[in-house]
Amino acid sequence: MAVFVADHPLIKHKLGLMRKHDISTKNFRELASEVARLLTYEATKDLETEKKTAQGWAGPVEVDVIKGKKITVVPILRAGLGMQDGVLDLIPGAKVSVVGFYRNEETLQPVEYYVKLAKNISKRMALILDPMLATGGTLDATIRCLKNAGCTSIRGLFLVAAPEGLKRITEAHPDVDIYVAAVDERLNENGYILPGLGDAGDKIFGTK
Ligand SMILES: O=P(O)(O)OC[C@H]1O[C@H](OP(=O)(O)OP(=O)(O)O)[C@H](O)[C@@H]1O
Ligand SMILES: O=c1cc[nH]c(=O)[nH]1
Ligand SMILES: [Mg+2]
């Protein structure tokens, strides 16, 4: 598994703004989408292209087109929806596969409540979206769900990850690539990332 930690100044700056304790729902939502857009740029850098001939204004012209697997974007409900618009800005034709998990607050185990995957998922590259990778339980369950459906090409985009969660996913799924804006220090006793962003779902949906 490759872990790509973004070092682009725009990503760092925007993530810094998201860490402020008094950020508004509007600003948090906008920044989540903007950082997701920038992470998408990084996560698609190695997509293969092939040459095709197009009819240009002055006659035939050779152009590059993306080759290979089509993409399905996989937002993990709820918080992953906050990244979806930014990703679809760059990949507007992607199908969306929605996966719903919430984390039991006491056991920290993921509880599945919704799955609706794109057709022919075995022929697609899956781009999982979730702002937070904490213990890794939710991501592990999502990856297993995609693999059970036949998906063989999986990448994940996250705003903040904890070292504990990254280690768990690296060991369990060496075939999955992770793109993250920042790797923070650790988890607290309630499984929240420090310094982190707090509860990303609540901040995106304004439920706190
Ligand atoms: O790595 P883990 O320890 O599994 O934790 C991460 C998960 O927790 C949060 O979701 P939450 O359960 O708060 O649901 P929400 O998106 O509905 O707020 C977050 O968005 C991840 O999905
Ligand atoms: O820090 C965390 C951990 C899990 N879920 C969140 O929203 N934030
Ligand atoms: Mg939440």
Walk me through the structure.
Its EC number is 2.4.2.9. It comes from Desulfomicrobium norvegicum (strain DSM 1741 / NCIMB 8310) (Desulfovibrio baculatus (strain Norway 4)). It catalyses: UMP + diphosphate = 5-phospho-alpha-D-ribose 1-diphosphate + uracil. The chain has a single domain (3-45, 71-205), classed as 3-Layer(aba) Sandwich (Rossmann fold), CATH 3.40.50. The strands form three sheets. Strands 1, 4, 5, 6, 7, 8, 9, 10 and 11 form a nine-stranded mixed sheet that branches. It is α/β, with parallel strands linked by helices and 208 residues long. It has helices spanning 9-18, 25-43, 81-90, 137-148, 163-172, 200-205, and strands at residues 3-5, 49-56, 59-66, 70-77, 95-96, 98-103, 110-116, 124-129, 132-133, 153-161, 177-183, 186-187, 193-194. Uracil (URA) binds next to helix 6.
Topology diagram in text:
Elements: E1 3-5, H1 9-18, H2 25-43, E2 49-56, E3 59-66, E4 70-77, H3 81-90, E5 95-96, E6 98-103, E7 110-116, E8 124-129, E9 132-133, H4 137-148, E10 153-161, H5 163-172, E11 177-183, E12 186-187, E13 193-194, H6 200-205
Parallel strand pairs: 1-11, 4-5, 4-6, 4-8, 8-10, 9-10, 10-11
Antiparallel strand pairs: 2-3, 6-7, 12-13
Number of helices: 6
Beta fraction? 25-35%
Structural class: alpha/beta
Helix content: 25-40%
Overall residue-averaged pLDDT value: 97
CATH architecture: 3-Layer(aba) Sandwich
Rounded to an integer, what's the Rg over CA atoms?
Answer: 18 Å
| Low-confidence segments | none
Q: Find the CATH topology.
A: Rossmann fold
Q: What's the total number of strands?
A: 13
* Outline: globular
Element order, helices and strands? EHHEEEHEEEEEHEHEEEH
Under the CATH scheme, which class? Alpha Beta
End-to-end Cα distance, whole Å, is 35 Å
Ligands in the model, by name, code or SMILES, are: 1-O-pyrophosphono-5-O-phosphono-alpha-D-ribofuranose, uracil, magnesium ion
GO cellular component, one term: cytoplasm
Binding site for uracil: 193, 198-200
Domain Phosphoribosyltransferase: 5-207
Keywords: Allosteric enzyme, Glycosyltransferase, GTP-binding, Magnesium, Nucleotide-binding, Transferase
